Amino acid sequence: MKWDGTRLTAEKHGNKVELVNRHGVIYTVRLPGIRRALLQMKEDFVLDGEAVYVNPETGREEFTGSQIRCSTHFPDFWLLKQYPLVYKVFDVMMLKGKRLENVDYFTRKAKLEDLLDGAPEPLHYVPYREDNVQFFEETKKVDAEGLIAKDIKSGYRYERSWSWLKIKNWRREICDVAGFTEGRNARAHFFGALVLARDGKRRGKAGSGFNDWELRQVKDLISDAPRVPKPFDIGEPYTAIETSMRVEVKYYKITVNGVMREPVFVTIVDS
């Protein structure tokens, strides 16, 4: 299962625990509950996992909760209570002083499951399944993030590789085009991203997914459109236009503010 949170490695050596995100930023102080639970473990280890907020009312993970917690350097009591995080652990790179990066997937998972058997909250072992097609269909039914497909003969991979493939549960939507941002570098003569709206409200912006012909087509349409006052703020400069153009986009998820995450242009629906 692919979890929608903040990826972290956890290193424990004796009485010291360090939590680090994938950019090398130390999160240990920000996540005291996870740190305390890791300290209760007897063995030394290096783990890979995801800090996830699960909404108790829906039972679903929400990225905003982990984003708020992981971006707060010194969380107060209210924040800890409002957004409790769990650590979904899916791999182990070192155990009892022995490096495991080059050990096959099933062996690592077996060692990880043994390590986390009876582990205190909020440490959760992430199981695997081999019925990939059925599993993916189930993730779509519950509106989950998707899957990570892994080569069972592969060693540990922290970076992207052909041994570990992200299979996202993309959603699709038709949006109105409310404006565009300026293009830069290779896109300087076209546009940066289309500013999207739905029912007059900000829905996000799509800057990827265009082929060369579509870039030219969209540029012609937005160049001829009348300029109007900005209907909403997007946190950066953009040109608002009046147009009947609507586009289909695929996206990852909707934030609590009603904005699409990672929207990608698919096609023009109306122009």
Beta-strand level of the residues, as a percent range?
A: 25-35%
CATH architectural group of the largest domain: 2-Layer Sandwich
Shape call: elongated
Discrete helix count: 6
| Cα end-to-end separation | 39 Å
The sequence of SSEs as H and E is EEHEHHEEHEHEEEEEHEEEEE
Oligomer: single chain
Major sheet: 6 strands, mixed
**CATH H-level superfamily of the largest domain:** DNA ligase/mRNA capping enzyme
Radius of gyration, in angstroms, nearest whole number = 22 Å
Count of strand segments? 16
Low-confidence stretches: none
CATH fold call of the largest domain: D-amino Acid Aminotransferase, Chain A, domain 1
| CATH class wording of the largest domain | Alpha Beta
Helix- and strand-based class?
alpha+beta
In the residues, how many domains can be counted?
2
What is the averaged pLDDT score? Answer: 94
Helix content: 10-25%
